[in-house]
């Protein structure tokens, strides 16, 4: 489990095409500290498994399903990525509960800078709109954010200078893809209500 609090801005140092998968090598001194084979690290919000670890770099295999359903397929050597290790038991939950299971991808539609923050508008796939509410939580490229406005096919978030400086959202431009994970609580509530209504019939 993750919290959506990005630990560092890493970098893709190599991409190897394996046919029906890809192997990424990524640099991240913070998240690789103490890392070992089999550990999980979230890369732009996608939970990946460490295959190898050497120095401040690690490799992770990404299957075709993940490449197709997330924005990881668009990564190239030099791409910057948000990195986060799983939260430790008993640690503070600084963001919200994040699984690292991407629900879909959106696209940056607009950036509106202000003096002390920036509003970013992101497209929202139709199937996810019902889970996104004003002042609710959403994960964008692995970043736990609060929804400012929730539209039928878009949402907006307000980014403080720290987020702009230390995450990929400070660099994303209109047209760039982003990974989206909606609040898991909303999905469980929907499922439970559907089961309750079905049992009542």
TrEMBL record:
InterPro entries: ATP_synth_asu-like_sf (IPR023366), Lumazine-bd (IPR001783), Lumazine-bd_dom (IPR026017), Riboflavin_synthase-like_b-brl (IPR017938)
Catalytic activity as recorded in UniProt: 2 6,7-dimethyl-8-(1-D-ribityl)lumazine + H(+) = 5-amino-6-(D-ribitylamino)uracil + riboflavin
SUPFAM superfamilies documented for this protein: Riboflavin synthase domain-like
Annotated pathway: Cofactor biosynthesis; riboflavin biosynthesis; riboflavin from 2-hydroxy-3-oxobutyl phosphate and 5-amino-6-(D-ribitylamino)uracil: step 2/2
Domain Lumazine-binding: 1-96, 97-193
CDD domains with a match to the protein in the record: Riboflavin_synthase_like (cd00402)
Lumazine-binding repeat ranges, renumbered to this chain: 1-96, 97-193
Transmembrane stretches, start-end: none
GO molecular function: riboflavin synthase activity
GO biological process entries: riboflavin biosynthetic process
E.C. number(s) listed in UniProt: 2.5.1.9
UniProt KW keywords: Repeat, Riboflavin biosynthesis, Transferase
A Pfam family assignment: Lum_binding
PANTHER family linked to this entry: RIBOFLAVIN SYNTHASE, RIBOFLAVIN SYNTHASE ALPHA CHAIN
Assembly information from the UniProt record: Homotrimer.
Record-given protein name: Riboflavin synthase
